[in-house]
Amino acid sequence: MGLNEKPLSTLHEKASYDLGDFEVPTGREEAWRFTPLSRLKGLHNGKAEAVGHVRVDVDAAPEVTVETVGRDDARVGKSFMPSDRVSAQAWNSFEKATVITVPREAVTSRPTVLTLTGEPGGDGAGAAYGHIVVKVEPLAEAVIVLDHKGSAVYADNIEFVVGDGANLKIVSLQDWADDAVHVSHHHAQLAKDATFRSFVVTLGGDLVRLSPTVTYTAPGGDADMSGVYFVDAGQHLEHRLLVDHSQPNCKSNVDYRGALQGEEAHAVWIGDVIIRVEAEGTDTYELNRNLILTDGARADSVPNLEILTGEVAGAGHASASGRLDDEHIFYLQARGIPFDEARRLVIRGFLGQLIEKIQIDEIRERVLSAVEAELAR
Description:
- The protein has 377 residues and is mainly beta.
- Helix content is 14%, strand content 43%.
- It folds into 2 domains: 8-323, no CATH class; 324-377, no CATH class.
- The protein has a 9-stranded mixed sheet with strand order 1-4-6-8-10-12-14-16-18, covered by helices on one side. The chain has a 9-stranded mixed sheet with strand order 2-3-5-7-9-11-13-15-17, with helices on one face.
């Protein structure tokens, strides 16, 4: 049951669209104990006035439909309910939602790219709230890129609704300016035999907290969630994942890796997997690894697995945080490679094993270049 005093199945039961159903976090709650609330700039307590702006530009594949709709649209909020106060605040505060629809049996010819650019007011004050729905109809296939940049205090909910036999690949880039604050909830709902692949890259921002979740509505769903993050001095990058297996014969795999350097660089990874009584035949595994490059950096890694049925195909989790392996560095130096270059090669290899999974060449090279720039610091 990990470090929790209560089972996961009870910790994640609260869900509501009503902001009043969630108390203001104090930092003593299990869900908030790692997050520096004072750096959220009011996103958690209602003091962040919705006067900021994040522009959403969509470069859509020709097979995809893009709409801007009001909160009364029936497709908005259909696949999820907020599970914490910031998610509920974002739900109650956004004005327009972006809806991406991939029609039945369509196979998109290229990725659809959503660029979200923070545009603070003249004094830099105020928060922005957003909502995105990606609906992939049965037997369709699509690739979606979410590219975050600029300066903002931003909270949002993103819904990924994957229909029967559909295949959705997501790449989410957090490449914010140094002063940005971003709290985001990704909600993936998988229908019968649906496939969901997500890759999260978190590099920029002062504080970024992402909460990806996966739920299943029928048997046969398959989710693979990967992520890479690089934390610099003073940054707080937090990833809190939940995979809720409530249907039989579904799969999930989670693999997140991070590198940290600099004083008060802080990474948090929480991986929660619930296998409910009815979810017989579940096959799941979650892994988090952190490479601490300098003194003063801190990584908190907590994998949690709750199994409520004895009939599982496989279930496991692992977590490791440590420094560079001296033997690896020595091996390279013994072959004439200088220390700095040996260090760079080891770190790039550690993260590159996951980065190579990004199937979009342009994005993959951009991420590798960003990692190289971080190492050059």
